[in-house]
Design goal:
The complex is a heterodimer of chains A (176) and B (684). Chain A has 176 residues and is of the alpha+beta class. Chain A has two domains: 40 residues; 129 residues, Rieske [2Fe-2S] iron-sulphur domain (Rieske Iron-sulfur Protein), CATH 2.102.10.10. Chain A has three helices and ten strands, in the order H-H-E-E-E-H-E-E-E-E-E-E-E. With 684 residues, chain B is mainly α. Among the domains of chain B are: 33 residues, no CATH class; 243 residues, Cytochrome Bc1 Complex, Chain C (Up-down Bundle). In chain B, the strands form three sheets. A two-stranded antiparallel sheet of chain B has the order 1-2. A two-stranded antiparallel ribbon of chain B has the order 3-4. A two-stranded antiparallel ribbon of chain B has the order 5-6. The relative contact order of chain B is 0.09. The chains are: A alpha+beta (176), B mainly alpha (684). At the A-B interface, helix 1 and helix 2 of A face helix 3, helix 5, helix 10 and helix 25 of B.
């Protein structure tokens, strides 16, 4: 048997076949959603990604610490005067990913650089206080960031990302 | 697979591909042009339904494996967290668990269909044997998978079934140790069960390919058991069989959706919501329903080795069916005697299943023996004998002629009556005086549109905090859950405030020490005791159970015929009924003539009546802000509601999605039905 349909004379049968096919397609597509959605972070993971508080008082000038937020390493660097001056002396227009040092720190807390410690090239963790720019050096593919976490040399396209954070007090920040 | 195909793709690129790998013409000749008998009835749609179910089980299984932790200490919790935290995790897990039941239901229909219409007979012997192999693999897969949630039934099912092999003389114990990977069922067992449970479905899929191949070589059997002779006897597989299968599938999916969305725990043992405990066997250890007939045979034989042999041979004997039944007429439609014996055999199998679910004592054991004999007699005596003495009815000359005839349904009706009668007799036997069954109560969350009563949830939480939490943990509930949709309905700020009242142990800090900090929404309710030993020491040797799952982990026998009605009324509230009854069932003194051990308290509804928990709630103990009465019945109702939510926090989402799925499936089934009628209109 062959199913003949005519565009000139749409029959009730054509409508039935189209409706059934459409219903099957809609149902099939809709039922895909749970199978895709389950791949997303589950409720416990999302809840565990809540903001964290970090006490800055133990970090001396010139030191840095690494904390974890949502599984990502966050560098908290207590910069020296020299580092801040170097970061601010740069011609912003010459940078690969132009940004002023002021835009990457909180006003009044210029000594604190807080960046996500993940190289924007392919996700390795740069080493602090290494490289030619008194900032970070990524051992994987040689990207170098300055003391403001901006990309200066190597294959990475972007500056180290700044996570959302606020100063709860002069010595305490909340990340997230 | 029926000879070289004359299929030619029209597109040049496809032609290029086709010359190098003729898979398109293979598909075309197997699933499009393939001639299918025009007289197939709806029992033949179960092949397609089974293929669909196998695919769905593999899909949901692969996904569950992404979230499951196959480690003895974490498996149970990871399954619970799938149900609670993973997006649509409850749906995937219920689909997989009920899917196994539906898969077996479909395979039993498929097997009985083959039995009735003689689909195992020449030239389909290999096809049948491949089917038996698939069935055996399914049983193994189902058993291995049932062990994975690592609940009480998982653990003890695994223990009992692996111990079957200890019946083997001389080497039995060594084999069992080999299966376990230890001196008892433990983590290595769980790990290998997980690995094998992942492997076997793909073996099934492989054998299914052989099964379909063999089917396409021999051609499909049909209700009249006639061979296809002319073109008039057949219709092309597509669209006729495809559309018919799709319609059958959409009706089957309605049943499946009913279970998944409305009665997901109907077929599950409540004991499996208790984490595995190697120190205590559940009171009634019963396998999943699809193994029950074989389990009944095992138990009715009073000798270990003989019982195991009888059980295995009850399945393996099916391999020899083509040579036991040598009648030339295939279909029971034309075999008046064989038809009656077939229905008796169906009833025997169902009654064996019923016996498998009952305690192995008294009349059940004798009934089990008689039915075991009936089971084997049918296959070993009745079928060979019938082949010799039975005179078949006159058969139509061709399938095309047979399409014009219609058969009677008297035998089926008689069989149903006999079955119902048998079950009534069985239940009358079990109807011992049981006035300690918890009374059924009215719950806002019952039924297809049930929702939790927010007020009751909040009051229940208050009672838990002020009373129950002194001894009982609530391990699977995080503070954040109190703000989840379908829960007690607190705001995020309220949850944060509530969480901060608790001290949570955290650490280690930079000095390497553990410290207390205020709770956060992501934290779980802290347990009242640091470990089981401390809990027992403080409670007179008793262990107060965790309450997160108690509403699903406690149940009671409903008995025949109620357990059948329950499926249709969606009765799922044994747990809350039980909790409510326990809280109100304390009596100061046991009734005259009843003594209970020291350190226990008399409770009318507790199994055995001697409970180690003293009466926890008295009138006036907890005051409510909303003016609800401070009485024990009110407390019992509120706590039971709260604990039902704790056990099934996604219930509202489940019933809501279920309604949408039902509306869709009903519309789709109607559309499929009319499409099928149109497509077949010219074939008849």
């Amino acid at each position: 048997m062959t199913i003949e349909s005519s565009a000139d004379h749409p029959t009730r049968r054509d409508f039935l076949f189209v409706a059934t096919g459409a219903a099957a397609a809609v149902g099939g597509l809709a039922s895909l959603w749970p199978f895709v959605s389950q791949m997303n972070p589950d409720a416990a993971t999302i809840a565990a990604g809540a903001p964290i508080e970090v006490d800055l008082s133990p970090i001396a000038e010139g030191q840095d610490i690494k904390v974890f937020w949502r599984g990502k390493p966050i560098y908290i660097m207590h910069r020296t005067k020299k580092q801040i001056d170097e970061a601010r002396a740069v011609q912003v227009a010459d940078l690969r990913d132009p940004a002023t040092d002021q835009s990457r720190v909180k006003e009044g807390h210029d000594q604190w650089l807080i960046v996500i410690g993940i190289c924007t090239h392919l996700g390795c963790i740069p080493i602090a206080h290494e490289g030619n720019y008194d900032g970070f050096f990524c051992p994987c593919h040689g990207s170098q960031y300055d003391s403001s976490g901006r990309i200066r040399q190597g294959p990475a396209p972007l500056n180290l990302a700044v996570p959302p954070y606020t100063f709860a007090s002069d010595t305490k920040i909340q990340i997230g | 697979m029926s000879g070289p195909s004359d299929y030619k793709p029209s597109h040049p690129a496809l032609q290029w591909f086709e010359r190098r790998l003729p898979i398109l013409s293979l598909m075309h000749s197997s699933f499009v042009a393939y001639p299918t008998p025009r007289n197939l009835n709806y029992w033949w749609t179960f092949g397609a339904i089974l293929s669909f179910m196998l695919g769905l089980q593999i899909l949901t299984g692969v996904i569950l494996a992404m979230h499951f932790t196959p480690e003895a200490g974490m498996a149970f919790r990871s399954v619970e967290l799938i149900m609670r935290d993973v997006n649509y995790g409850w749906l995937l897990r219920y689909m997989h668990a009920s899917g196994a039941s539906m898969f077996f239901f479909a395979v039993y229909v498929h097997m009985f269909r083959g039995l009735y219409y003689g689909s195992y007979k020449e030239p389909r012997e290999v096809l049948w044997i491949l089917g038996v192999i698939i069935y055996l693999l399914m049983m193994a897969t189902g058993f291995l998978g049932y062990a994975l949630p690592w609940g009480q039934m998982s653990f003890w099912g695994a223990t009992v079934i692996t111990n079957l092999f200890s019946a083997i003389p001389y080497v039995g114990d060594s084999i069992v140790t080999l299966l376990w990977g230890g001196y008892s069922v433990g983590n290595p067992t769980l790990n290998r069960f997980f690995s094998l449970h992942y492997l076997l479905p793909f073996l099934i899929a492989g054998v299914v390919v052989l099964h379909v191949w063999a089917l396409h070589v021999a051609g499909q059997n049909n209700p009249d058991g006639l061979d296809m002779k002319t073109d008039k006897d057949s219709v092309p597989f597509t669209p006729h069989a495809t559309i018919k299968d799709m319609f059958g599938l959409s009706v089957f999916l309605l049943l499946f959706a009913w279970i998944v969305f409305y009665t997901p725990n109907y077929l599950m043992a409540s004991d499996n919501y208790i984490p595995a405990n190697p120190a205590q066997t559940p009171a009634h250890i019963v396998p999943e329903w699809y193994y029950l007939p074989f389990y009944a045979m095992l138990r009715s034989i009073p000798n270990k080795l003989a019982g195991v042999l009888v059980m295995f041979s009850s399945i393996l004997i099916l391999v020899f069916l083509p040579w036991l039944d040598t009648a030339r007429t295939r279909s029971c439609k034309y075999r008046p005697l064989a038809k009656q014996f077939f229905w008796i055999f169906v009833v025997v199998c169902i009654l064996l299943g019923y016996l498998g679910s009952q305690p192995p004592e008294g009349i059940y054991v004798y009934a089990g023996r008689i039915l075991t004999i009936c089971y084997f007699s049918y296959l070993l005596i009745v079928l060979p004998l019938l082949s010799r003495i039975e005179t078949p009815r006159a058969m139509p000359n061709s399938i095309a002629d047979a399409v014009l005839q219609r058969g009677g349904k008297v035998a089926a009706a008689i069989a149903v009556l006999v079955l119902a009668g048998g079950l009534v007799i069985g239940s009358a036997q079990s109807a011992r005086a049981e006035d300690d069954t918890p009374p059924s109560q009215t719950w806002s969350f019952a039924g297809p549109f049930g929702k939790y009563d927010r007020g009751a949830l909040q009051r229940g939480l208050k009672i838990y905090k002020e009373v129950c939490s002194a001894c009982h943990s609530l391990n699977y509930i995080a503070f954040r859950n109190l703000a989840d949709p379908g829960g007690p309905g607190y705001s995020e700020a309220q949850v944060e405030a509530l969480a901060s009242e608790y001290k949570i142990k955290d650490g280690p800090n930079d000095q390497g020490e553990m410290f207390d900090r205020p709770g956060r929404p992501a934290d779980y309710f802290p347990a009242p005791f640091p470990n089981e030993q401390a809990a027992r020491a403080a409670n007179n040797g008793g262990l107060p159970p965790d309450l997160s799952l108690i509403a699903k982990a406690r149940s009671y026998e409903r008995g025949f015929p109620y357990f059948i009605f329950d499926f249709f009324t969606q009765f799922q509230e044994q747990g809350p009924n039980y909790i409510s009854a326990i809280l109100q069932g304390f009596e100061d003194k046991p009734p005259p003539g009843v003594t209970i051990p020291d350190g226990t308290y008399y409770n009318k509804y507790f199994p055995g009546h001697a409970i180690k928990m003293p009466k926890p709630l008295s009138d006036g103990q907890v005051q409510f802000d909303d003016g609800s009465p401070a009485t024990v019945p009110q407390y019992a109702h509120d706590v039971a509601t709260f604990l039902m939510w704790a056990a099934e926090p996604k219930m509202e989402a489940r019933k809501q999605l279920g309604f949408q799925v039902f509306v869709f499936l009903i519309i789709f089934a109607f559309l499929m039905y009319f499409t099928k009628k149109k497509v077949w209109a010219e074939a008849h």
